Amino acid sequence: MEATDIVEVIGDFVQLKKRGANYVGLSPFANERTPSFTVSPVKGIFKDFSTGKGGSAVTFLMELEKFTYPEALRWLAKKYSIEIEETVESPEHREADNHRESLMIVTGYAAKFFHESLLDTEEGKNIGLSYFKERGFSKDTITKFELGYSPDQWEAFTGQAIKDGYQEQFIVESGLSVKRDNGSLYDRYRGRVMFPIHSFSGRVIAFGGRTLKNDKNVPKYVNSPESEIYHKSSVLYGLYFAKKAIREEDNCYLVEGYADVISVHQAGIENVVASSGTSLTVEQIRLMGRLTKNITILYDGDAAGIKASLRGLDLILEEGLNVKVVLFPDGHDPDSYVRKVGTSAFKKYIEDTKKDFILYKTDLLLKDAGNDPIKKAEVIREIVESVAKIPDSIKASVFIQECSYILKIDERALLSELNKIRASKAKKDSQQSSSSYSNHSKPAEPPVEINWDEPAEKQEKDEANQEKEVIRLLLMYGNRMIDWDGIANTYIGPFMIAELSDVEFDHPTSKVFIEIYQKEVENGVLPDEQLFIHYPDKDIVDLTVNLISTKYTLSENWYEMHRILVNDEQVNMKATILGAIFHLKQNKVGKILQNLRKELQKTDVEADQEILLSQYIHMKKVEKTISDYLGSVILK
């Protein structure tokens, strides 16, 4: 925990920008265009105001990557080169505590098996390693991407995995082995070179296997099937190795295949990923959008393939990202072209030829339309439809101006068409929203009879908030020394705990928090916020982060700019601390009085009435003492 820099850890997954003492970025848990995700390096916490999630670096990894607690610690230990000791499990106990982890363990084992088969067996060296060397991949690159080879035998991997104690269920479920009708298993990838697919955090979750045979009946690529750990629409090949460079360059190169990624990466251009032959999805676009707003598509010279992918690029525009396109000459793809011309010439070619997607699409479709006026009209509408997907109205206006010049059509006509498309979309969205509401709304329920004399729900809410306010003050100021009139030489935390000794907390999590704090104080420890940020109980972590996080911070120049004074609770700490304690006590006394009134109404026994009345009078005196301090008037 001491070695962990939360900004550095979360920065591996989210593009963060400094704002005052904190860092902000787009939420990785929700689709948003205005940053509401905040990281506090001082407190060592994050808070996502879109979804309410928050916590430490460990909590972040557990929420985003679905890690278990030990797995998150292992990830951090690896990142900061900290050795951790773990007990060695026997084959019988190798199955992890949960299903997902079991699949991860199997795919990790398989990656090691295929990599060792490539480097250490005669078959692997002669076939797999020779192929990779022909492609120009260095030994370091092969090791970095964990490239491998699956022996050309029916059960080479399956047999070894079972021998080493891995269960059939997970070998089959991960797609590494296939079950025959008779129940026996065989290797899915036999005789193929292997490209492991890594998760955002670097664990192997799937594979792509390429055949080296020329048999037309054998598919060129076989990819892992969907599983609990692998959803191809949410994965980009190479992103784990590219994410740091994408942030630094503020640009992501998008290519088509595994070899394209590896060759370009090996050439020193590391901000490159691939959609692995699948159509680009919204999930993949958002993965890139977490790291940069700038996407550059690197195409080979296949015109038919380019036209087929235009629709996917519209999705990128819709997510508010900037898209540029580069087309390579003479049928080259990124892999072949970078090997032919080298790194410097490759970079220069991209800079010299990249074109904004809208303008590129306009040129491409106009060439197809030729002089046919009907086709040209269709092109104009298609271009305006693409522009209409851009959420930034200023950027859209600029493209309308550019397209007006290229298409040789009046700008006002394009703007009119743009407004029609947007109006039509807004109407359609509204109708779908209404339909969805209608389909999912519950049948009408009878009206609820409101008892205006029973404010119990409001009282409970107020009480819960007052309990949380006390906890917030303990977190923020508990380890500060008191220097008030008549009170000195003690800390705020123990003082508050002593003052609250006669108060029973009712909100479950708040009650547990106070019990923990009290126990620490009794043991001579003054707990700070870090204890609760890293506490094993998620409810305690959530409560802590919610209380010490704020979405807004006051500018240092606020008063000079606006001449408006904002109350600072630290100016009079005595009033702040005692005010919170006595407001909570006032609420508790109010509840006691309310219960006593109910008991007095119920009982007819004179002796009982006298006891209750005596208690009631005593509590009224307590209430008056509290109200006198708070300066409020109680009417009841």
Report strand order across the widest sheet: 1-2-3-4-5
Beta content comes to 5-15%
Secondary-structure-derived class? alpha+beta
- What is the name of the CATH class of the largest domain? Alpha Beta
Description of the structure:
The protein is of the alpha+beta class. The chain is built from 26 helices and 18 strands. It has a five-stranded antiparallel β-sheet, sandwiched between helices. Strands 13-12-14-15-16 form a five-stranded mixed β-sheet, with helices on both faces. Helix 4 (99-120) packs across helix 5 (122-134), helix 15 packs antiparallel against helix 16 and helix 16 runs antiparallel to helix 17. The longest helix is centred in the last third of the chain and has 30 residues, at 411-440. The two termini are 52 Å apart. The model is unreliable at 92-96, 440-454 and 632-636 (pLDDT under 50).
Task: Give the structure's gist in a few sentences.
The chain has 636 residues and is of the alpha+beta class. It is 53% helix and 12% strand.
Secondary structure elements and pairings:
Blueprint: H1 6-11, E1 17-19, E2 22-25, E3 37-40, E4 45-48, E5 54-55, H2 57-65, H3 69-79, H4 99-120, H5 122-134, H6 139-144, E6 148-150, H7 156-163, H8 168-173, E7 177-179, E8 185-187, E9 192-198, E10 204-211, E11 221-223, H9 239-249, E12 252-255, H10 258-266, E13 272-274, H11 282-289, E14 294-299, H12 303-318, E15 322-327, H13 334-341, H14 343-353, E16 355-356, H15 357-369, H16 373-388, H17 393-407, H18 411-440, H19 456-477, E17 481-484, E18 487-491, H20 492-499, H21 508-522, H22 529-533, H23 538-548, H24 558-562, H25 573-602, H26 606-630
Parallel strand pairs: 12-13, 12-14, 14-15
Antiparallel strand pairs: 1-2, 2-3, 3-4, 4-5, 6-9, 7-8, 9-10, 10-11, 15-16, 17-18
Helix pairs in contact: 2-3, 4-5, 10-13, 13-14, 15-16, 15-17, 16-17, 16-18, 19-23, 19-25, 25-26
